[in-house]
Design goal:
mainly alpha; about 60 residues
């Protein structure tokens, strides 16, 4: 549980940094850490949302 909580905090911080830089790699990193937390909390709708978002950011990177 501690790992999931720390992962959530770290992911949130990375997503705040992403909001100011709009660097897709930061979004992928932040969402990955947030996904660990939501899996632990069994919030599967957010797991799916995060995975779809990660795929979207990967396609953005590959498309540019």
């Amino acid at each position: 549980m501690v790992i999931a909580t720390l992962s959530g905090y770290f992911g949130s911080i990375v997503m705040v940094i992403f909001a100011f830089t709009m660097e897709p790699l930061l979004a992928i990193l932040g969402l990955s850490f947030l996904t660990i937390q939501v899996i632990s909390a069994k919030l599967y709708n957010l797991v799916l949302l995060n995975i779809i978002s990660i795929i979207g950011f990967i396609t953005t990177i590959l498309g540019s």
